[in-house]
Amino acid sequence: MAKKVLMGNHAVSYGARLSRVEVIAAYPITPQTQVVEELAEMCAWGDLNAKFIKVESEHSAMAACIGASATGARAFTATSSQGLLLMHEMLHWAAGARLPIVMANINRALAPPWSIWSEQTDSLAQRDTGWLQFYCESNQEVLDTTIQAFKISERVLLPAMIILDAFFLSHTYEPVEVPAQEAVDEFLPPYKPPLKLDVDDPHAFGALVGPDGYYEFRYNIQKAFEEAQRAIIEVGEEFGERFGRAYGLVEPFYVDDAEVVLVTSSTITSTARAVIKERRARGERVGLLKIRVFRPFPFEAVREMLLGVPKVAVIDRNLSLGHHGIFHAELKSALYGQRNAPAVFGFVAGLGGRDVTPRTIHQILDIVGSQEEPDRDVYWIGLKAKAEEGQPAGNGRKQRQRVKA
Amino acid sequence: MTVTNSNGNADSATATITRAVPRVKTLKELAAQEEREKRFQGGHSLCAGCSIPVMVRSVLNTIDIPVVVVNATGCLEVATTRYPTTAWNVPWLHVAFENAAAAASGVEVAFRVLKRKGRTAQELGFELPGEVRVVVFGGDGGTYDIGLQALSGALERGHRFTYICYDNEAYMNTGNQRSGATPPLAHTTTTPVGRESLGKLQQRKDLTEIAVAHHVPYVAQASISHWQDLVRKVEAALRADGPSFLNVLAPCQRGWGYEPCLTVEIARLAVETRFWPLYEVVEGEYRLNALPKKPKPVSEWLKTQKRFAHLLKPENRHLLDELQLQVDREWEKLLRRCEGRVLEV
Ligand SMILES: Cc1ncc(C[n+]2csc(CCOP(=O)(O)OP(=O)(O)O)c2C)c(N)n1
Ligand code: SF4
Ligand SMILES: [Mg+2]
Fold it and tell me: Which of A114, B117, B128, B217 is the most exposed place for a label (fewest CB within 10 A)?
């Protein structure tokens, strides 16, 4: 094991290398590029014995991964935002075909307006595609989750998405324990594909299925998600035993006696943790629940943690337009009709990469502290005054004048 | 039919040069147009020495009638429209990376339909222009690769629009990754030179020929170094009754690795070494637009750029020779197609 200072994107590349990926098919997009550039370097210098297909689009990236995985190779890709959306058809395909492809997605806001900054709506918009989804908080978690993802995916035959925030993680350097190759090899044996294009035992993949059969195919995928819950827990525990860092579906922090629990994911968690610590030191009974795994949604785990807590506040750096923040909505569905369910407040913050600072978290705790129940569906934090009058932020009129970019 | 031989000297019997010398806008006229309309303004954040604004200005100042610009994602798009400002004084539309030609199809057809239906200014809230041209700017990534399907569809359907690919031979906006336009053996961040790699292993695709294969009225290859040729081609493209396509070599100092002041010179060298021949295909008929009197070896061009530095090592001499052979072969092919027709401005 060696400690290295890695940017989040390189933590992905190291994870993929240690997992001995065999086929990489990817297309560049900000803020993912360093993931694939580093993998290209590794191939160019012979540090990774893999083939990197430099495809002409993300749709083709995923299609090539599907082809490679169907042939029996360990396949990997990485993308972000617009690229992930372009893959959408193939995402459903990878899951429906039960192929254990692993992908990193760097969370970036969707256009228009054009943005390269952090927001989770890109990956959350893929929630119904049949991919496992892991939201990472640190570069260490990114590397560790990449390795675990292959093991989990190959066990349950579902593809997995490792998700990290644009810039806050992708471009931020942190110290990361890089496990030794031999230790990873012991943890993650080579992929033995149950489904493959075998010339001695030919099968047809992607065939037409009538109403008499389709229903059962979907049922089987749903069952695989149930199995995935167990697999994620077991693999996370085994990882902990071997490498000293255990992982689960959710991660509680001062939840036990809390009167208010914040629910977060990704890097907002680290900021929230600092605020919780500060408020605990002042004697306030506040806590934090990080959701690491979004698909399968950890119904049981969140109920276990949150039933009996008086108030819960979900912070979403994402939005289902016309509905709520997505973690908020999903969390409520998990708690609905349960005895002792908390009052759930939903906060949308940090869209398009706007900073979510300790101050933002304090504001949220203050609002929740001052009310028994939420008085609106969604709370917006730090909205600029103009927007409240239905105007875009900034001076939109300027655009029509002759101004310099 | 006469062709030049592969050692680079034009045969004395070369091509009857048709110097029809078409009239093109003078620099003065271009400048006057620029002054009048300021269709594209400075103050954007394209790099110093970038060739793209040079090309955009030449194109827009050539056109006198109203234009609508459709822009694929890439350096040009990102660097000219940082909200709430814009460098464009013409209507400008960006619809993602992979589909500028499809978006332009919608714009072109909508103008026609609205006009045919006689929609009035009162109904629409704006006056339809009497005449308007749709001009698309897309990078090589957005045109050779991810946008090829959309381009092919639009060319085949016959929309009256002018698609201009600014070819800087890689995905520059994301930091220099290889594209289908990257020349063989070039170093990029996804074809890095390393122990097991000598840069890009594959050929460039010949997008200009792909466009020709769509049987559209006007296709041309141009370079920002030959501005009169470019201006003439823009005029011809706009006159064409149907789709027109221009592939313009547009050097990138960051990705290619050279001093920003050398942009035009390097573009010119690409033509003089016949790496990037200037030609046009009008209703299927090929014409050469630059016949270098004393063609230079391609190494003269390569050695100006860091991305080819590894090719200058003595042990890679054979790679250089091979590249030269390829350039010669392509040149001869082109000369055969031109059947002696040469039209130089
Ligand atoms: C679907 C999708 N995939 C990837 C990207 C990321 N991307 C933005 S610009 C760009 C490169 C553009 O290259 P090119 O078309 O050659 O234009 P240049 O940047 O060189 O001007 C890429 C890969 C994107 N915006 N959308
Ligand atoms: S990276 Fe290259 S193409 Fe892009 S703006 Fe800079 S010089 Fe121009
Ligand atoms: Mg380019």
Answer: B117
